[in-house]
Amino acid sequence: MTKYNEKQEIAKYIVEISRLLPYPKSLKEEVLDDLKTDVQSALDDSVDKSPVTVFGTPLEVAKNVIQGQEWHNNRAGWNIRFFAWTIDLFLKLSFAFIILGAGFFIMILLVPFDELILEFSKWETGSFIAIMSSSKGQLVTILSFLVILPATIIFLLYNIVLEHYFSTTIGKKVFHLVVVDHSGLKMNGRQVIIRNLSKIVLGEFLILDTVLGMILERQTPERTHYQRGLDILAETIVIKI
Amino acid sequence: MTDEILLKWVTEYKKGFSKPIILLALAKKENYPYKLTREITERTKGHIAIAGSNIYPILKNLVNEGLIQKEKVAKPTKSEDSSKKQYRSVYSLTSAGEELLKDLQGSLKEFIGIMHELIEE
Q: Which residue in A16, A79, A236, B97 has the fewest CB atoms around it within 10 Å?
């Protein structure tokens, strides 16, 4: 392998390890630089030029780096998580209302306002046949669906999508919070979905989930410190960097 | 079955020696993690081999205990241009680490002597 190819292999290897560590660049940079030095030295001493064979899989290395840095030891408390959730809720509602508002505006452009109100009033009676009997009714129904659907999707998937790709949400980022696997590594898709199930439905379930976490925390404080019930199930923690 | 148990026990007692051996290696000279693992493997003739990144948590532990310290030193580069200097972290013993090592060496010698006698009986 040429020196250039070897450097590329090492760079790729470090990037894979970095992807498993959902922490700010400012935290990771020095550690990954040191890691690069070690991997280069390991390859220089070895006939085998594969970083994985000589140094370990990216997952093994990432686990050791986490244990060596202990970035995940500072769990975020209930107060700060609540404030982050408040910001996220405000943002979700805002995005949803913006889409609903834009959609309604487009509907008014396509359907005269008084006819629009007439169609909506048919919905109150619940008569599906009456609604779909006219072309205007069909149009309003389809447009409403096209508006409500994205608004709902954004509201429901905001947390799941952001945490899957960035391990945080906007509200959490304001307070320097990151969601990770309990070992400190990046969460997998299954963990993201499980821990956010109680946010798909507003209010009651999230409250129950949080109260359950608080009760379990009293039983095993070291293990389940500041984890909601679904965090415990998903084996995830929210940490403050 | 006994081979499995033997392997497990050997791994366990060797693990127990990893911290003292790291301190002994750093007593000779400061080093960075990978080179440290190489030196340990060579000096123990392969009996204790800490693979790749497995040394990082052990080093962190020793730093937390105040026995070793980490500092940045310039990496040797072929380029003479100082603006291109790169740095890496190296570990060295603290004075607390040196003190502990002195006491530990005495304790280890005594323990190994006793084990040797037991084995020879």
A: A79
